[in-house]
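## retry 2 of 3
previous attempt timed out at serialization; input unchanged, resubmitting
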Amino acid sequence: MAISTSQLHRNLRGALGDLIFRNYNGKTVVSMRPKYKNETNTEARRQARGKFREATFFASHAMMDKKLKAYYMQKARQLKLPNAYTAAITDYLRKAKAGAVKPSSFAAKKGDTVMLLLSKGVFKIRKIKAILFNHDGEVLSEQHLTKAEGKNGFEFTFTDDFPDYAGFRIITDEPGKNEYTIYASDFLILPV
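## retry succeeded, writing output
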């Protein structure tokens, strides 16, 4: 791949023989036409293409919303991406990191709290649905949580005694409606 500085190639886009001309950030980039090998179409590849198709569909619709487009323009600058569309695709495809913190005095009793932490780099996760489940996978409690200003996570307060809880299933409001599971054995313990 080469960057053309010639005035002749300026604003040139498309293919010419085996050369492909693209414009990135005002620069003309010249590359060879890709050579496709006769590779098998595996299930994993089909799923990856499907996920990318969903991401481009999401990004296209996000660009029609002025507030979302402005949000992704800001994120594109932060991530040094070429445009808001690419930032929207990145947001859709990037998974969050999930964890939980409980105080050392935690006993899974009514009124006890667990801080659910979700991080997705520069992208924001504002709302989640937290589902507390037991070792058999049965739902013990379900709460819709919103991240408070200045807080690092989402505070889940136990509404009853649940000594047999096994963990949380978290569904986020992020693009792609990603789902995460945090098991009780993975909780960090915060000394009180």
